[in-house]
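Good morning C.,

I know you're traveling, so I'll keep this short. The sequence:
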Amino acid sequence: MQIGVVGKPNTGKSTLFKAMTLADVYIANYPFATIKPNSGVGYVKVDCADKFFGVQCNPRVGFCIEHKRFVPIELIDVAGLVPGAHEGKGMGNQFLDDLNQADALIHVIDCSGSTNDEGKPVEPGSYDPANDIIFLEKELDYWYLRIIQKGWQKFAREIQQTHKEIQKELANQLSGVGADEEMVDEVVKKLGLDPTKVIEWKEEELFKLASELRNRTKPMVIACNKMDIEGAAEKFEQLKKKFPDYRLIPCSAESELALKEAQKHELIKYIPGEGDFEIIGESKLNEKQKTALEFIKEGLKRFGSTGVQQVIDTAVFDVLDLMPIFPGGVNKLADQNGNIMPDCFLLKKDSTALDFAYKIHTDLGNKFIRAIDAKTKMTVGRDHKLKPGDVVEIVADK
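The tokens, ready to paste straight into the viewer:
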């Protein structure tokens, strides 16, 4: 699974990426500070099942703080996109193509209105961030249209002459961005397109097809960044009214990054996503640092958190509709190396015990006999639907 971090230049996109990953990325206050895509590991936050058993887990990957488990996922931060990117403007198509494998997108916007459409700093409040939501979707739609239109006339004639199924052929053409035959078929039917008259499909219809497929293969959460700047809260309320069906999360990447760095240097005790922190190294702080932390603390009181953890959690659990499942034995929660509840897997909601077995290892799925719910100690079958936070032992044929 991969989450792409996108947006126009200078919105705090790379700052958000660094706050999520603590990766060493270049951050600057001008357009195109990011040239090559950055990849790193971010963490989603779940209630750890170790609390149910009264133990402290010892994850092989990720970490756990006070029974809050942080599960790793892959993030990619691409260069800033500007209007006309699909035509090669700015950094152009190259960085759109970097998003091919992304399962979902985090669109970072400057909610304070202090960055214009070219990514250049302007007076806070002078730019409408709603423009960025509209422009990015348009650029992504045209990107998909470009893929569809590549050799379209020849492609359409061949479909018409050979009577091949357009759904299958189009799915093959769009497989690189995550489309499949079933999805294409659903969209073709939804738009009322006649699959027997592909040659007659107009560009307007192809654009609608591209837009719908983009929306399904690259679902999005919008990180409304720079909420710590005066006037951003008012603009956020305007965005909620204008885009009532969108996932809009207020956040401050700079605040989160500052807290992560302070925690890293053992100056504070902080659990990502929480609404407060504790200063534990006050003697090491200078006056400037103390003032900065007090400013952040006031922001936390106002908004409940920096919002950064909520952004990544929303992308994984709401947008991609995943849930955490823990492998574990009824009588033994530790692995052969003594690690207690070392793993946590992210599965689609409504996944079954058999799906979980295959997620762990193909052999477990192929040789599945039964599963045991470690919390209730009840045996369940292969079609048993799992719930978020379940701890499951798989019994397989040897």
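Safe travels,
E.
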